[in-house]
Amino acid sequence: MIHIKCFAHVKEKIGSDEITVNYQKVTVGALLQELAERYQFSKEQIMVAVNEEYAYPENVVHAGDTVALIPPVSGG
Question: Whole-angstrom Cα distance, residue 25 to residue 13?
């Protein structure tokens, strides 16, 4: 299983700050695409971190990894 931490509007769309998906191995791009379609959010501009390190779409996520979905945020 892969643990996913969600922030900002992604958290609101998914309805939770953490979810788990049942994959043994998947690319970051494929995982983000599936989640964006399932929960109806835009995957554009979302940064992805795997085990606290930024990842590219071609990077592979394995069971036991933690993925963070980090949308752009603004402060003030």
Answer: 24
